[in-house]
Amino acid sequence: MLGLGTLSAAAEPLVISNWDGYLAPDAIETFNAATGNSAELVLHATNEEIMGKLIAAKGKGYDVVFVSSPFAEVLHNLGLAEDLDHAKLPNLANLYPEATELAHDKGNAFSVPYTWGTTGLCYRADLTAAPASWSDLLAPSAEVSGKTTMLATERWLLAAGFLAEGYSVNETDLAKLEQTRDRLIAAKKTLLAYDDTTFYSKLVSGEAVLVQAWDGWCNYGITENNQIKYVIPKEGSDLWVDTMVILKSSEHKDAAYAFVNAMLDGATHRWAAENILYKVPNKVAMEGLDPSLIATYPNMGMPPSELLAFEQLRDVGPAQRLYSRTVSEIMASN
Protein backbone atom coordinates (compact mmCIF):
# COMPACT_ATOMS: atom_id res chain seq x y z
CA MET A 1 0.00 0.00 0.00
CA LEU A 2 1.22 3.48 -0.75
CA GLY A 3 0.02 5.33 2.25
CA LEU A 4 -2.32 5.70 5.15
CA GLY A 5 -5.30 5.53 2.89
CA THR A 6 -6.88 7.43 0.05
CA LEU A 7 -7.99 10.99 0.47
CA SER A 8 -10.98 12.67 -1.01
CA ALA A 9 -10.56 13.70 -4.62
CA ALA A 10 -11.61 17.14 -3.44
CA ALA A 11 -8.68 17.39 -1.04
CA GLU A 12 -6.61 20.50 -1.57
CA PRO A 13 -3.12 20.12 -3.05
CA LEU A 14 -0.06 20.05 -0.88
CA VAL A 15 3.32 21.52 -1.70
CA ILE A 16 6.43 19.38 -1.29
CA SER A 17 9.90 20.95 -1.51
CA ASN A 18 12.83 18.68 -2.28
CA TRP A 19 16.16 18.50 -4.05
CA ASP A 20 16.07 17.66 -7.75
CA GLY A 21 16.19 13.93 -8.45
CA TYR A 22 15.53 12.91 -4.84
CA LEU A 23 12.18 11.30 -5.68
CA ALA A 24 11.23 8.85 -8.40
CA PRO A 25 10.14 10.77 -11.52
CA ASP A 26 6.60 9.41 -11.16
CA ALA A 27 6.40 9.63 -7.34
CA ILE A 28 4.07 12.63 -7.22
CA GLU A 29 1.87 11.32 -10.02
CA THR A 30 1.64 7.92 -8.33
CA PHE A 31 0.80 9.49 -4.97
CA ASN A 32 -1.87 11.69 -6.51
CA ALA A 33 -3.46 8.77 -8.33
CA ALA A 34 -3.53 6.66 -5.15
CA THR A 35 -4.87 9.39 -2.87
CA GLY A 36 -6.90 11.73 -5.03
CA ASN A 37 -4.58 14.62 -4.25
CA SER A 38 -3.09 17.17 -6.59
CA ALA A 39 0.26 17.47 -4.85
CA GLU A 40 2.97 19.52 -6.50
CA LEU A 41 6.75 19.35 -6.21
CA VAL A 42 8.92 22.46 -5.98
CA LEU A 43 12.70 22.24 -5.96
CA HIS A 44 15.36 23.79 -3.78
CA ALA A 45 19.06 23.64 -4.54
CA THR A 46 20.37 23.87 -0.98
CA ASN A 47 19.24 23.61 2.62
CA GLU A 48 20.06 27.27 3.05
CA GLU A 49 17.79 28.27 0.17
CA ILE A 50 14.68 26.54 1.48
CA MET A 51 15.39 27.53 5.08
CA GLY A 52 15.51 31.19 4.10
CA LYS A 53 12.08 30.87 2.51
CA LEU A 54 10.58 28.89 5.38
CA ILE A 55 11.84 31.23 8.07
CA ALA A 56 10.72 34.33 6.19
CA ALA A 57 7.21 32.92 5.64
CA LYS A 58 7.02 31.07 8.98
CA GLY A 59 6.50 27.90 6.96
CA LYS A 60 3.42 29.08 5.13
CA GLY A 61 3.08 27.91 1.54
CA TYR A 62 4.79 24.58 2.17
CA ASP A 63 3.53 21.31 3.60
CA VAL A 64 6.42 18.81 3.49
CA VAL A 65 10.08 19.76 3.14
CA PHE A 66 13.16 17.62 2.69
CA VAL A 67 16.06 19.10 4.69
CA SER A 68 19.22 17.79 6.33
CA SER A 69 18.95 16.98 10.02
CA PRO A 70 20.53 20.12 11.55
CA PHE A 71 18.07 22.21 9.55
CA ALA A 72 15.17 20.00 10.65
CA GLU A 73 16.33 20.68 14.20
CA VAL A 74 16.31 24.42 13.52
CA LEU A 75 12.74 24.19 12.20
CA HIS A 76 11.75 22.38 15.38
CA ASN A 77 13.51 24.88 17.63
CA LEU A 78 11.75 27.73 15.82
CA GLY A 79 8.38 26.07 16.30
CA LEU A 80 7.86 25.53 12.57
CA ALA A 81 7.92 21.70 12.49
CA GLU A 82 4.86 19.60 13.21
CA ASP A 83 4.95 17.32 16.25
CA LEU A 84 4.40 14.02 14.49
CA ASP A 85 1.46 11.73 15.20
CA HIS A 86 2.97 8.30 14.64
CA ALA A 87 -0.47 6.73 14.36
CA LYS A 88 -0.72 8.48 10.99
CA LEU A 89 2.61 7.04 9.84
CA PRO A 90 2.25 3.26 10.05
CA ASN A 91 5.13 2.74 7.64
CA LEU A 92 7.51 4.00 10.33
CA ALA A 93 7.54 0.32 11.25
CA ASN A 94 9.68 -0.27 8.14
CA LEU A 95 12.59 1.73 9.58
CA TYR A 96 15.60 0.25 11.33
CA PRO A 97 15.47 0.62 15.12
CA GLU A 98 18.59 2.80 14.83
CA ALA A 99 16.55 5.31 12.80
CA THR A 100 14.63 6.15 15.98
CA GLU A 101 17.86 6.86 17.90
CA LEU A 102 19.20 9.78 15.89
CA ALA A 103 20.66 12.43 18.17
CA HIS A 104 18.91 15.37 16.52
CA ASP A 105 15.45 13.85 17.05
CA LYS A 106 15.28 10.75 19.23
CA GLY A 107 12.02 8.94 18.60
CA ASN A 108 11.34 10.82 15.34
CA ALA A 109 9.25 13.40 17.15
CA PHE A 110 9.40 16.02 14.37
CA SER A 111 11.34 14.53 11.44
CA VAL A 112 11.44 11.29 9.48
CA PRO A 113 14.81 10.16 8.08
CA TYR A 114 14.81 9.61 4.32
CA THR A 115 18.50 8.92 3.55
CA TRP A 116 21.64 8.71 5.65
CA GLY A 117 25.33 8.18 5.21
CA THR A 118 28.86 9.40 5.80
CA THR A 119 31.30 12.00 4.48
CA GLY A 120 34.77 10.79 3.66
CA LEU A 121 37.47 10.64 1.01
CA CYS A 122 36.85 9.58 -2.57
CA TYR A 123 39.96 8.86 -4.63
CA ARG A 124 41.43 7.33 -7.78
CA ALA A 125 43.10 4.12 -6.66
CA ASP A 126 45.09 3.94 -9.91
CA LEU A 127 46.51 7.44 -9.44
CA THR A 128 47.22 7.73 -5.71
CA ALA A 129 47.71 5.59 -2.64
CA ALA A 130 44.67 4.97 -0.47
CA PRO A 131 44.29 7.87 1.99
CA ALA A 132 44.04 7.02 5.68
CA SER A 133 43.55 10.39 7.35
CA TRP A 134 41.87 13.73 6.82
CA SER A 135 45.41 15.07 6.86
CA ASP A 136 46.01 13.33 3.53
CA LEU A 137 43.52 15.84 2.12
CA LEU A 138 44.38 18.89 4.23
CA ALA A 139 48.14 18.50 3.91
CA PRO A 140 48.51 16.44 0.73
CA SER A 141 51.70 14.99 -0.67
CA ALA A 142 53.42 16.82 -3.51
CA GLU A 143 52.03 14.30 -6.00
CA VAL A 144 48.46 14.98 -4.88
CA SER A 145 48.65 18.71 -4.17
CA GLY A 146 46.61 20.74 -6.65
CA LYS A 147 44.47 17.72 -7.47
CA THR A 148 42.14 17.78 -4.48
CA THR A 149 38.73 19.32 -3.78
CA MET A 150 36.74 20.05 -0.64
CA LEU A 151 33.06 20.66 -0.06
CA ALA A 152 32.12 24.34 0.06
CA THR A 153 29.03 23.92 2.24
CA GLU A 154 29.85 25.50 5.59
CA ARG A 155 29.08 22.66 7.94
CA TRP A 156 30.88 19.99 5.92
CA LEU A 157 33.91 22.11 5.14
CA LEU A 158 34.37 22.85 8.84
CA ALA A 159 33.64 19.24 9.78
CA ALA A 160 36.67 18.04 7.83
CA GLY A 161 38.86 20.45 9.76
CA PHE A 162 37.27 19.62 13.09
CA LEU A 163 37.74 15.88 12.55
CA ALA A 164 41.36 16.36 11.49
CA GLU A 165 41.98 18.23 14.75
CA GLY A 166 40.19 15.59 16.80
CA TYR A 167 37.29 17.91 17.66
CA SER A 168 33.52 17.50 17.61
CA VAL A 169 31.88 18.29 14.27
CA ASN A 170 29.74 20.70 16.30
CA GLU A 171 32.67 22.43 18.02
CA THR A 172 31.88 25.94 19.28
CA ASP A 173 34.99 26.77 21.35
CA LEU A 174 36.44 29.92 19.77
CA ALA A 175 40.09 28.93 20.14
CA LYS A 176 39.45 25.53 18.55
CA LEU A 177 37.43 27.12 15.77
CA GLU A 178 40.25 29.55 15.01
CA GLN A 179 42.77 26.70 14.98
CA THR A 180 40.56 24.79 12.55
CA ARG A 181 40.15 27.92 10.41
CA ASP A 182 43.90 28.34 10.14
CA ARG A 183 44.33 24.72 9.11
CA LEU A 184 41.67 25.05 6.44
CA ILE A 185 43.25 28.26 5.15
CA ALA A 186 46.56 26.41 4.79
CA ALA A 187 44.75 23.56 3.01
CA LYS A 188 43.13 26.01 0.58
CA LYS A 189 46.51 26.68 -0.99
CA THR A 190 46.72 23.04 -2.09
CA LEU A 191 43.20 22.72 -3.53
CA LEU A 192 42.11 22.47 -7.12
CA ALA A 193 38.70 23.78 -6.07
CA TYR A 194 35.88 23.87 -3.58
CA ASP A 195 33.23 21.74 -5.26
CA ASP A 196 29.91 20.37 -4.02
CA THR A 197 28.51 19.06 -7.29
CA THR A 198 31.10 18.06 -9.91
CA PHE A 199 33.94 16.66 -7.80
CA TYR A 200 33.21 13.10 -8.88
CA SER A 201 33.41 14.15 -12.53
CA LYS A 202 36.83 15.62 -11.81
CA LEU A 203 37.86 12.22 -10.44
CA VAL A 204 36.54 10.47 -13.53
CA SER A 205 38.54 12.76 -15.83
CA GLY A 206 41.65 12.55 -13.64
CA GLU A 207 41.70 16.31 -13.06
CA ALA A 208 41.35 15.46 -9.36
CA VAL A 209 42.69 12.37 -7.61
CA LEU A 210 41.42 12.91 -4.03
CA VAL A 211 38.25 14.71 -2.90
CA GLN A 212 36.06 15.21 0.13
CA ALA A 213 32.77 13.56 -0.72
CA TRP A 214 29.42 12.43 0.54
CA ASP A 215 29.39 8.66 0.11
CA GLY A 216 26.51 8.59 -2.37
CA TRP A 217 28.17 11.18 -4.59
CA CYS A 218 31.34 9.12 -4.62
CA ASN A 219 29.16 6.28 -5.88
CA TYR A 220 28.32 8.36 -8.94
CA GLY A 221 32.02 8.41 -9.77
CA ILE A 222 32.35 4.67 -9.14
CA THR A 223 29.56 4.15 -11.70
CA GLU A 224 31.80 5.68 -14.37
CA ASN A 225 35.20 4.37 -13.23
CA ASN A 226 35.73 1.36 -10.99
CA GLN A 227 39.14 2.71 -9.94
CA ILE A 228 37.30 5.30 -7.84
CA LYS A 229 37.09 4.19 -4.20
CA TYR A 230 35.62 5.55 -0.98
CA VAL A 231 37.14 5.48 2.49
CA ILE A 232 36.29 6.94 5.88
CA PRO A 233 39.45 8.43 7.43
CA LYS A 234 40.76 7.07 10.72
CA GLU A 235 39.54 10.21 12.54
CA GLY A 236 35.98 9.38 11.48
CA SER A 237 33.08 11.00 9.67
CA ASP A 238 29.92 12.86 10.41
CA LEU A 239 26.64 10.96 10.16
CA TRP A 240 24.52 12.97 7.75
CA VAL A 241 20.78 12.44 7.62
CA ASP A 242 18.32 13.94 5.15
CA THR A 243 14.82 14.12 6.58
CA MET A 244 11.18 14.79 5.78
CA VAL A 245 9.49 17.44 7.91
CA ILE A 246 5.80 18.35 7.97
CA LEU A 247 5.31 22.06 8.56
CA LYS A 248 3.15 23.08 11.50
CA SER A 249 1.58 25.75 9.30
CA SER A 250 0.41 23.17 6.76
CA GLU A 251 -3.30 23.40 5.98
CA HIS A 252 -3.23 19.92 4.44
CA LYS A 253 -2.02 17.80 7.34
CA ASP A 254 -3.79 14.59 6.35
CA ALA A 255 -2.34 14.75 2.86
CA ALA A 256 1.08 15.61 4.26
CA TYR A 257 1.04 12.59 6.56
CA ALA A 258 -0.15 10.39 3.70
CA PHE A 259 2.73 11.58 1.52
CA VAL A 260 5.42 10.97 4.15
CA ASN A 261 3.93 7.56 4.87
CA ALA A 262 3.93 6.75 1.15
CA MET A 263 7.63 7.56 0.90
CA LEU A 264 8.30 5.00 3.66
CA ASP A 265 6.74 2.17 1.68
CA GLY A 266 9.41 -0.49 1.15
CA ALA A 267 9.35 -0.48 -2.64
CA THR A 268 9.06 3.31 -2.87
CA HIS A 269 11.95 3.89 -0.49
CA ARG A 270 14.05 1.24 -2.24
CA TRP A 271 13.94 3.41 -5.37
CA ALA A 272 16.00 6.01 -3.52
CA ALA A 273 18.70 3.51 -2.61
CA GLU A 274 18.82 2.02 -6.10
CA ASN A 275 18.81 5.32 -7.99
CA ILE A 276 20.30 7.97 -5.71
CA LEU A 277 22.83 5.39 -4.46
CA TYR A 278 22.39 6.56 -0.89
CA LYS A 279 21.67 4.27 2.01
CA VAL A 280 18.13 4.60 3.32
CA PRO A 281 17.08 3.93 6.93
CA ASN A 282 14.32 1.62 5.76
CA LYS A 283 15.04 -2.01 6.70
CA VAL A 284 12.46 -3.39 4.28
CA ALA A 285 13.86 -1.32 1.42
CA MET A 286 17.51 -2.19 2.08
CA GLU A 287 16.80 -5.89 2.46
CA GLY A 288 15.18 -5.79 -0.98
CA LEU A 289 18.31 -4.51 -2.74
CA ASP A 290 20.08 -6.69 -5.27
CA PRO A 291 23.32 -7.87 -3.57
CA SER A 292 25.26 -6.85 -6.68
CA LEU A 293 24.49 -3.21 -5.87
CA ILE A 294 26.34 -3.44 -2.57
CA ALA A 295 29.17 -5.36 -4.23
CA THR A 296 29.61 -2.49 -6.70
CA TYR A 297 29.18 0.23 -4.09
CA PRO A 298 30.60 -1.17 -0.82
CA ASN A 299 29.69 1.89 1.25
CA MET A 300 26.03 1.00 0.63
CA GLY A 301 26.56 -2.02 2.87
CA MET A 302 27.53 -0.15 6.03
CA PRO A 303 25.17 -1.36 8.78
CA PRO A 304 23.13 1.13 10.80
CA SER A 305 25.04 0.29 13.99
CA GLU A 306 28.27 1.53 12.38
CA LEU A 307 26.59 4.66 11.04
CA LEU A 308 25.39 5.64 14.49
CA ALA A 309 28.94 5.49 15.81
CA PHE A 310 29.55 8.81 14.04
CA GLU A 311 28.44 12.20 15.35
CA GLN A 312 25.62 14.04 13.63
CA LEU A 313 25.84 17.67 12.63
CA ARG A 314 23.57 19.53 15.05
CA ASP A 315 21.93 22.92 15.32
CA VAL A 316 24.65 25.02 16.96
CA GLY A 317 22.34 27.93 17.69
CA PRO A 318 23.99 31.36 17.92
CA ALA A 319 27.35 29.79 17.02
CA GLN A 320 26.08 29.40 13.44
CA ARG A 321 26.97 33.06 12.87
CA LEU A 322 30.48 32.29 14.04
CA TYR A 323 30.61 29.34 11.64
CA SER A 324 29.52 31.54 8.75
CA ARG A 325 32.06 34.21 9.62
CA THR A 326 34.81 31.59 9.88
CA VAL A 327 34.02 30.12 6.47
CA SER A 328 33.90 33.62 4.98
CA GLU A 329 37.39 34.22 6.33
CA ILE A 330 38.59 30.96 4.81
CA MET A 331 37.08 31.80 1.42
CA ALA A 332 38.51 35.33 1.46
CA SER A 333 42.03 34.20 2.37
CA ASN A 334 44.89 34.17 -0.12
UniProtKB/TrEMBL annotation:
Keyword Cell cycle on entry: no
Assigned keywords, A-Z: Periplasm, Signal, Transport
Location of the protein in the cell: Periplasm
A Pfam family reported for this protein in Swiss-Prot or TrEMBL: SBP_bac_8
Chief place of localization: periplasm
Key word Transport present: yes
InterPro entries: SBP (IPR006059), Sperm_putr-bd (IPR001188)
PANTHER family reported for this sequence: SPERMIDINE/PUTRESCINE-BINDING PERIPLASMIC PROTEIN, SPERMIDINE_PUTRESCINE-BINDING PERIPLASMIC PROTEIN
Protein name: Spermidine/putrescine ABC transporter substrate-binding protein
Native organism: Rhodobacter lacus
